[in-house]
Design brief:
With 439 residues, the chain is of the alpha/beta class. It has 2 domains: 101 residues, Roll (Urease, subunit C, domain 1); 275 residues, TIM Barrel. It contains 12 helices and 18 strands. Helix 3 crosses helix 4. The radius of gyration is 23 Å and the shape is globular. The two termini are 40 Å apart.
C-alpha cells in the first residue's frame, strides 16, 4: 500500500510538472484606450506573450494555449505612471508624532513600512513611478528589490536624496536647534556651483536614475517662504549641465516665480508644483518644452490635513497662500499648451490615492482624454521610457490596467482599478474568474 501511495504521488507530481504552463494572455474588455491616438477602441483586446504586448485590437489573433481573461464592461489602459511620489514616507494624522517617529524608527523599520506603500500603489494601477526624494537609500533598496522580484510594487525611477542649499527646502536640518542632529544638513545639501556639481556626481555614483533639486521654498518645510528662490542661476546651471552630461534628467521642486524661472532657464526637464509660475516662466516653458507636473493631489492632501488641524500653523499659512495662485498658474499653463505630466506627491497624502489626480486635472480644465494621456504617454516621455512603456503597442512591456465602464464619460472610474498586470504578470484581478484557455 505504501508503494502504491508513493506511486500515486509521483504520478501526480510528474503530470503537474509536465503540463504546459501558458505564458500568453488574451485580455478582453468592452473597450481599450489608445493613449497614442487619444481615443477608445471597441472592443478592447490585448494579446500578451511573456512580458510583452504581442498584439492589440479586435483583430488580434489569440495564440493557442493562451489564457483568455474577459473583463466585461471595462476599459483596458496602459499602466498608469506617477512622476512624483515619495514611497519611503507618509504623513500621519499628527505632525508631532511624525517627528517623534522619524527619530525613533530605525532604517530597517522604515524600509519595511515602505513595502505596503509600494504594493498599494501598484494595486491602484500605477505600474511605474518616479520617486523624488528618499532618505538613507531606502528608495534605492526598494527599487532594486522590486526589480529582482523580491517584493511587489511599481517600477521605480528614483532621485535618491534631493539637492538643495543650506537652509533650503531640502535641508534636513531645517528648524532644529544647532547641535541636535548628527548630520546638520543632509547628503544632498551644498552651496556653490562646483559643490552642487559634485553632489550630482555623488548621486549618480550611488545609483540615482535622475536628479531632483529644490529651487524654491516649500509648503511643508518650516524655515522659508514658499516662494523664495534658493539657488543662484549659476548653481542651477551647474546642476543641470552635470546631470544631462551624465544622461540624467532633472526635476525641479519650484513654487516661486523667480526660482522656477531660473530652473527653466537652466534647462530642467520638469517643474514640480509651480504654484506661482509667472507669465514669463510659462512662456519659457512652452518655448523650451519643459514639462509641468502640477501635483494637484498634494495640495488637496495638505488642505485636508490643514482643515483637520494636523499641521503646524506656519504650514497652514503657506497652504492658504498658494491655493488660488496655483489654480491660476495651472489654468494659464493649459491655455498656453504647456506640456502636462501626471504627478501627485504621494506621501504628502496616503499612498494608493494617486488616481485622485485624474479628476483634479479634469476639474482644472483638461479633458478626460488629456488627463489619461498625462498619466501614460506624456509621463512616459518625461521619464524617458517611451520606447517600452506608455502605450499598448506590440513590443512594449505588458503593463495593463482595467477600470469599470468608460473613463471618458466618468474620469473617476480611474479610482476603481480592478485589474493590474505588470510585465505580463497579473497582480490584481478582483473579478476572480478563472481565465479560460484559447484553443
Amino acid at each position: 500500500m505504501r508503494h502504491l501511495a508513493l506511486g500515486c504521488l509521483l504520478s501526480v507530481g510528474l503530470s503537474a510538472s509536465a503540463a504546459p504552463v501558458p505564458d500568453s494572455y488574451v485580455l478582453k474588455a468592452a473597450r481599450l484606450f489608445d493613449a497614442k491616438a487619444g481615443r477608445l477602441v471597441t472592443p478592447g483586446m490585448v494579446v500578451v506573450t511573456g512580458d510583452k504586448v504581442a498584439a492589440v485590437g479586435p483583430g488580434a489573433k489569440a495564440p493557442e494555449g493562451a489564457r483568455v481573461v474577459d473583463l466585461g464592461d471595462a476599459t483596458l489602459l496602459p499602466g498608469f505612471m506617477d512622476a512624483h511620489t515619495h514611497l519611503t514616507g507618509e504623513s500621519g494624522d499628527d505632525w508631532r508624532q511624525d517627528l517623534i517617529d522619524s527619530f525613533q524608527r530605525t532604517i530597517p523599520e522604515r524600509t519595511l513600512e515602505a513595502l505596503p506603500r509600494a504594493r498599494v500603489t501598484l494595486m491602484a494601477g500605477f505600474t511605474t513611478v518616479r520617486d523624488l526624494g528618499g532618505a538613507d537609500d531606502i528608495d534605492l533598496g526598494l527599487r532594486n528589490a522590486i526589480r529582482r522580484g523580491l517584493v511587489v510594487g511599481p517600477r521605480i525611477l528614483t532621485a535618491t536624496a534631493a539637492l538643495g542649499t543650506t537652509g533650503g527646502h531640502c535641508d534636513a536640518g531645517n528648524s532644529w536647534r544647532k547641535g541636535l542632529l548628527a548630520d546638520e544638513t543632509g547628503v544632498g545639501v551644498a552651496d556653490g556651483a562646483d559643490a552642487l556639481r559634485a553632489k550630482v556626481r555623488e548621486r549618480v555614483k550611488y545609483g540615482a536614475d535622475l536628479i531632483k533639486v529644490c529651487a524654491t521654498g516649500g509648503v511643508l518645510s518650516l524655515n522659508a517662504d514658499v516662494d523664495s528662490p534658493q539657488l543662484t542661476q549659476a548653481e542651477l546651471d551647474a546642476i543641470v549641465d552635470e546631470a544631462h552630461a551624465r544622461k540624467r534628467r532633472v526635476a525641479a521642486h519650484a513654487h516661486g516665480a523667480e526660482g522656477a524661472l531660473r530652473a527653466i532657464r537652466a534647462g530642467v526637464d520638469s517643474i514640480e508644483h509651480g504654484s506661482f509660475l509667472s507669465d514669463e516662466a510659462l512662456d519659457l516653458m512652452k518655448q523650451k518644452g519643459t514639462w509641468f507636473v502640477p501635483t494637484c493631489m498634494a495640495f488637496q492632501g495638505v488642505k485636508e490635513r490643514a482643515d483637520k488641524g494636523q499641521l503646524p500653523e506656519d504650514n497652514v499659512r503657506k497652504i492658504r497662500a498658494v491655493q488660488e495662485a496655483r489654480r491660476q498658474a495651472l489654468k494659464k499653463a493649459l491655455a498656453r499648451g504647456v506640456r502636462i505630466a501626471f504627478g501627485t506627491d504621494a506621501g504628502v497624502f496616503t499612498h494608493g490615492r494617486n488616481a485622485g489626480e485624474f479628476a483634479l486635472l479634469v476639474e482644472a480644465g483638461l479633458s478626460p482624454v488629456e488627463a489619461l494621456r498625462a498619466a501614460t504617454v506624456n509621463t512616459a516621455e518625461l521619464l524617458g521610457v517611451s520606447a517600452s512603456l506608455g502605450t499598448l503597442e506590440p513590443g512594449k512591456l505588458a503593463d495593463v490596467v482595467a477600470v469599470p465602464g468608460n473613463p471618458l464619460q466618468d474620469i473617476r472610474k480611474t479610482e476603481a482599478v480592478f485589474f493590474v498586470m505588470k510585465e505580463g504578470v497579473i497582480h490584481r484581478h478582483d473579478a476572480g474568474a478563472t481565465p479560460s484557455v484559447a484553443r
